[in-house]
Amino acid sequence: MMSQKVYVLDLRNEIDAPSARYMSRGIASAKEDQVALIVVHLDTYGGRIDHADSIRSSLLDAGIPTAVYINRNAASAGALISIACDSIFMAPGSTIGASTAFNGAGGKAAPDKYQSYWKGIMRTTAELKNRDPAIAEKMVDPKSGLDRLSPEGQVITFSTREALSNKYCDAELNSISEVIARMGITEPEIIEYAGSPTDQLINFLINPTVSLILVLLIFAGIFMEMKTPGVGFAGAIATVAIVLFFAPHYLEGLVEFWEIALFVVGVFLIALEIFVIPGFGVSGVLGIIITVVGIVATLLDNDGPSMIGISTNELLEQTGSVLVMMVSGILIVIVMAKRLLRGGKGHPLVDTSAQTKEEGYVAVSQEIMAMVGKIGIAVTDLRLTGYIEVGGKKMDATVVGGVADKGDKLKVIKIDGNTLIVEKV
After folding, report:
1. Mean pLDDT lowest for which of 137-146, 230-239, 280-289, 299-308?
2. Using 50, 70 and 90 to split pLDDT, how confident is the model at 110?
3. How far apart are CA 142 and CA 154, in angstroms?
4. For residues 386 and 410, is the Cβ–Cβ distance under 8 A?
5. CA-CA distance, 274 to 222, in Å (whole number)?
């Protein structure tokens, strides 16, 4: 007997935009491969309603027998996805139900109009798959009756046995292999769909931890470029991090135009601070604030500037995470600069090596050499580098310790080319 292809789609995480994209691509690939069965390996506490509805539509339009194997949890949006499959199988100790719509993670129940719409989706999906639509409604609305199945004021959450007795589960099984056999596939060729290499790379880059690391690199690169303008290395780091951060979010539909525009405006203001306006003033501070807002908005799963559906806790959590990465990036640059300077190795972007006549270098003028030991005044803030005034002349300077403020007294301790190496008095 010829083997039959079976696609296994892994949906064991939050229902979000990457999940919807993964399921859509997986089902499309299954159609191309002319598979005999699609099995959804499900374990989720729920997620965004719109993304769950997108997955539901893909399953309903598959044109291929579909089965879901609930391995522990099919809550909220996961219940809708389960009901959209032709067959439902559950592992021992699993649950399905509790599908009330909420405003954001941990937020309050959504207004009645959203609950009504969500309840309608659950009901019509159950009807399409010949399951009791009243039970699907009760999973959403605690006022829908059926008090014999769930106490008044509570939504339905079925255990495996309860789902079996109410025809919301076809069998209690222990593995995907048992699901495939139960669906009548005797010689399966099991294909665990992982997505294309591009899909896997995108999913890696939009992982929350990876995204925050990229945010750290963005701010570290920007801060280093502000303090060593024109070098380019730091700016290149920031640019690469920006591309890796925004590109996958854009491809996943997780970033909107206004969010990118905010970020671009913020970076433009910071660029003005670096290349046009000396010191560290209003343009730089405002640019950083706008940049932070653009990044936070990108990380939130919002729908438009109104932030509808985003809880206060979620907003504060993401804002705090971005600010922590920003401060961490700045501190890393400062600490690295201090350690390198104190260790006598110099800063990696500042050449402090000796330049001898034997190597063909021309000696520094006596006028500049005479500045060693003199006291100057910082005419700009020095964040590693800047300008000081010594004997009526404005000179490039690198400060030991990495930081000095405008107006600070600074002592010239040595000369590096035409740059003064100074320390605070």
Report:
1. 299-308
2. low
3. 5
4. no
5. 9
Average pLDDT, the chain: 84
Q: Which amino acid belongs to residue 105?
A: A
Note the Cα 71 to chain centre separation in Å: 27
For the four alpha carbons of 396, 399, 403 and 406, in that order, the dihedral sign comes to: negative
Q: How far apart are CA 273 and CA 281, in angstroms?
A: 7
Q: What is the pLDDT of residue 360?
A: 47
Taking only the tens place, the pLDDT of each residue in 297-346 is 888 876 666 666 666 777 888 889 899 998 898 888 778 777 665 555 54
Q: Are 141 and 115 in contact (CB under 8 A)?
A: yes
Burial 3-17 (b: 16+ CB within 10 A, else e): ebbbbbbbbeebbbb
Exposure string of 299-335, with b = 16+ CB inside 10 Å and e = fewer, is: bbbbeeeeeebbbeebbebbbebbeebbeebbebbbe
Q: Which two tokens stand for residue 211?
A: 């995204």
* CA-based nearest residue to 70, from 114, 29, 40: 40
**Interval 256-283 mean pLDDT:** 78
> With pLDDT > 90 as the criterion, what percentage of the chain qualifies?
39
Beta 409-416 vs 419-424: how paired, if at all? antiparallel
| Phi, psi torsion values for 395, nearest 5 degrees | -130, 150
